[in-house]
Amino acid sequence: MRPKRFPPVSLIDKHPVMVNRHAIPFVGICLALVTFVALLLLDVDPTVALSALVVWVGSLILAGARPPEPERVVVEKAFTRESMGALIENSSTPLLVTERNTIAIANQAARRMLGQHILGQDARMAFRQPEAITLLGDNKNGKAIVRGLVRRRDIWQINRQSVDENLAVIELINQTAEADISRAHTDFVANASHELRTPLAAIIGYVETLSESGDNLDSPTSQKFLGTILREAQRLQSLVSDLMSLSRVEAEKHDLPDQIIDLTALVERSARDAAGSDKAGRLEFSLERDLVVVGEIQQLEQLVRNLVDNAFKYGSDDSPVRVELVHAANENARITVANQGEGIAPEHLPHLTRRFYRTDPGRSRASGGTGLGLAIVKHIVERHRGRLDIQSQVGQGTSVIVRIPLAKLDNSAENSSAIVGGELETEDVS
């Protein structure tokens, strides 16, 4: 089949400017004048001497002139189907060129997405989407949004731009990620609104009851209502605090921390803070000493507190919570917090770090959980370039494992610094 030829493109100007420059030989002319004067002094006929001068100078001028430049040939190169295919082949965006709605060219990204068989097919058959069929059938420039083009939840924008009456370029833009982000924001606002509304409704209801009843309520009932108000207010305070923590951690996600921290002391201190005096006796420690990491002390303390707090909330009553810190493979510090209890079903494990996700909403709210603890942990681990794993067996318990790279300290740093209070403070050695 004869290759399709596109309008020619001129590579060289069709009207070159002709330049004819003369270099004046001043030295030769001066020599000719000296010779002319010498001939006159020798009593040579002035007419002969002048003729010799004119011939000499004219010869010098003609010899120094540049010949005119030859007219340049105009070279015109036309786009062919092959050259157009080579132009778009390595683009990361799926691109198609259609000729009368038949796919004539598909770059590598388009073939990988739609299959090698699309070449030569009718574009409307290749997409099989009502919106795309309408766009391509009208033979007009425009765009259409199609869903499930490759996978069920995919969202693609199809842009069509005509080249001439027969040819058109089709561009495919993946908008799945943007849609997911928009959906996540919508879900977050809806969940946050629901979580805030629930304690506020309880507080407002009990306060209205107390204000309307006046002295008619007995003291035990009033105390019960006031206790409920206090509990819901504390839950509201915890939710707002966790929302602020999550927002701060996400904002600093790409900023590498720079504090040198004694992780052993931090883990033990934070675990005891989370347990409190009434549960501290249930903690079981297995901590390897002298493990130093680069991090932010407040965020790592929050990470350990959240994990230990969750272990107590969702473990069996009076069962121990094991906190382990070891020097793991690949120069990582591995923190493990494990409890004994009901465990978590496998289908819930991939979703535990989502905001407001709960395996048992009623139990979580009753225990004071906000549904944001593991989401905060995940973002802290990501900021510290670590890894988070959750292992659970139904009826036995759950283990949360965090790996954080150990700090690489040279000898000079070790000699000029001292670990104090869980953080490495540099001494003045001058």
Helix/strand/pairing class, anyone? alpha+beta
Give me the CATH fold name of the largest domain: Heat Shock Protein 90
Topology order in helix (H) and strand (E) letters: EHHEHEEHHHEEEHHEHEEHEEHHEEHEE
Strand portion: 15-25%
Mass-distribution shape: elongated
Stretches where pLDDT is under 50 for at least 5 consecutive residues are: 8-20, 412-418, 423-430
What does this structure look like?
The relative contact order is 0.07. α1 (26-41) packs antiparallel against α2 (46-64), α7 packs antiparallel against α8 and α9 (263-279) runs parallel beside α10 (297-314). The strands form 5 sheets. A 5-stranded antiparallel sheet has the order 4-3-7-6-5, with helices on both faces. It has helices at 26-41, 46-64, 81-88, 108-114, 123-127, 130-137, 176-213, 219-251, 263-279, 297-314, 361-366, 373-383, 411-415, and strands at residues 9-10, 76-77, 95-99, 102-106, 142-147, 155-162, 167-174, 259-262, 283-287, 292-295, 321-328, 332-338, 387-393, 397-405, 417-420, 423-426. The chain is elongated. It has 13 helices and 16 strands. The two termini are 83 Å apart. It folds into 4 domains: 26-64; 81-174, 2-Layer Sandwich (Beta-Lactamase), CATH 3.30.450.20; 180-251, Signal transduction histidine kinase, dimerisation/phosphotransfer (DHp) domain (Helix Hairpins), CATH 1.10.287; 259-426, Heat Shock Protein 90 (2-Layer Sandwich). The model is unreliable at 8-20, 412-418 and 423-430 (pLDDT under 50). The longest helix is centred in the middle third of the chain and has 38 residues, at 176-213.
